């Protein structure tokens, strides 16, 4: 049995890019651990969901624990930083935010968890954080430093296959005009030529949707995901894409464990 540690920025980030990989790892008999950097304080939420925004982090942590149970996660750790919000917003400069953290200090905190769990494999996000979110970018930076401290080399950067998704969105829009989200204004994911690992999680894709549904505070932001039929959802999210930080081989890989 190996241990897989998946480092994320906010509660709910574990679902779409890595949820299938986590569920598959558990099904294959491995220990699965999630570490979350922030409480998701800057997330949007439905009117009346909480009486005050200060209550949101506790609610979101509870949602994460529910999601983790669906995916079969064995242990969840919270680093306790504040959500930095989207790039360019005032919350970026909050001294308690993850974006303002000292990289070495945060890396040491993560390295302590790595020392406890002793994972063989770690997942993070790609170097642009998937879509440029400050906390996602720092997940990459902090974890790479923590892995240097820990001597851990098996690091996989979860990403979106931009070429595949753009083609998929174009096909979907033909039969579903007006239902496709607007094209992102900033770069997202990586081109297919940068990706060297693709994990088939089609057997677990229903668990990804179920886990995401447990994040009730955030469903409004991903409503389009729940509008997809089962077949379209599986096409969009039935493969999880990674860039291996220190690949053992140059050939394309289909598993991280």
Topology of this structure?
Blueprint: E1 3-8, H1 13-16, H2 19-27, E2 31-38, H3 56-71, E3 75-81, H4 103-117, E4 121-125, H5 134-150, E5 155-159, H6 162-175, E6 197-200, H7 205-213, H8 223-227, H9 230-237, E7 239-244
Parallel strand pairs: 1-2, 1-4, 2-3, 4-5
Antiparallel strand pairs: 5-7, 6-7
Helix pairs in contact: 3-7, 4-5
Task: Summarize the structure in short.
The chain is of the alpha/beta class and 257 residues long. It has helices spanning 13-16, 19-27, 56-71, 103-117, 134-150, 162-175, 205-213, 223-227, 230-237, and strands spanning 3-8, 31-38, 75-81, 121-125, 155-159, 197-200, 239-244.
Key features of this structure:
seven-stranded mixed beta sheet; 9 helices; 38% helix; globular; Rossmann fold; alpha/beta; 257 residues
Structure description:
The chain has 257 residues and is α/β, with parallel strands linked by helices. The protein has a single domain (3-244), classed as LmbE-like (Rossmann fold), CATH 3.40.50. Helices cover 38% and strands 16% of the residues. Strands 3-2-1-4-5-7-6 form a 7-stranded mixed β-sheet, with helices on both faces. The chain starts with a strand and ends in a 13-residue tail after the last strand. The relative contact order is 0.18.
Q: In what order do the strands lie side by side in the largest sheet?
A: 3-2-1-4-5-7-6
Provide the number of structural domains.
1
Tell me the number of strands: 7
List the total number of helices: 9
Q: State the helical fraction.
A: 25-40%
* Biggest pleated-sheet summary: 7 strands, mixed
Radius of gyration: 17 Å
Overall average residue pLDDT: 92
